[in-house]
Amino acid sequence: MVLSRQSRRVIAVPMVILASKRYWRRLRRSLARAFAAISGKSLIASNNCKTGGVDHINEHVSKKLRDVVEKCKYFSLCLDESTDLSDISQLVIFIRTIQDDFSVAEEMLDLIPLHGTTKGTDIFEAVNKLVSDYGGFDKCSCIVTDGARAMTGTEIGFSGLLKQNSINCPMIHCIVHQESLCGKSLRQINVMKVTVKITNIVRGGNRALTHRKFRDFWA
């Protein structure tokens, strides 16, 4: 293979120049112009190209998740509704599946914006439409919520609308929210002070050595 003068020049460049950011910038531009001249197209990705790539990734992930849900034995859902920085209510839905070999997988099923109200009917319509796309509630073993009235209402809440539509899924109040409510009700200030102090001793600040000793102690 016969190397051109430019190729020999690139190979002979000293390491000091190779380490220069300016040199690498010029080299990238030269390569981009060379490829553009060969293909007749610019290498700079347009907005449509970027969004198209995101759409392809979304389709691939959705297909993989759909295959997991279709092959699973049972699945459970976890719902939570919150408001983002733009004052739009977001309903996040997580799914936990179990296969015939007892392997478990957890994924975020979807993030649904609720632009209007956040009543039980709005939540039910969003969840029902999403789950119907994945095969319905036949394999659903339970649904976990944050205990809000819109979720647990027996008439116009999400739980009540499930029963009215003959969807018999047990509803469970999230244990994390229960602990939070329990902590506010009991007001165990002395217990919390000791717990926070111990946590700060083990993990607070630059306590990497203390954490390693604590981990080795319990190993």
Q: How is this structure best summarized?
A:
With 219 residues, the chain is an alpha/beta fold. The chain has two domains: 8-39; 48-173, Nucleotidyltransferase, domain 5 (2-Layer Sandwich), CATH 3.30.420. Helices cover 54% and strands 18% of the residues.
Explain this structure.
The longest helix has 25 residues, at 47-71. The protein contains 10 helices and 5 strands, in the order ααααβββαβααβααα. The protein folds into 2 domains: 8-39; 48-173, Nucleotidyltransferase, domain 5, CATH 3.30.420. The protein has helices spanning 5-11, 15-18, 21-39, 47-71, 120-133, 149-152, 158-164, 175-186, 189-203, 208-218, and strands at 74-83, 89-98, 104-114, 140-145, 171-173. With 219 residues, it is α/β, with parallel strands linked by helices.
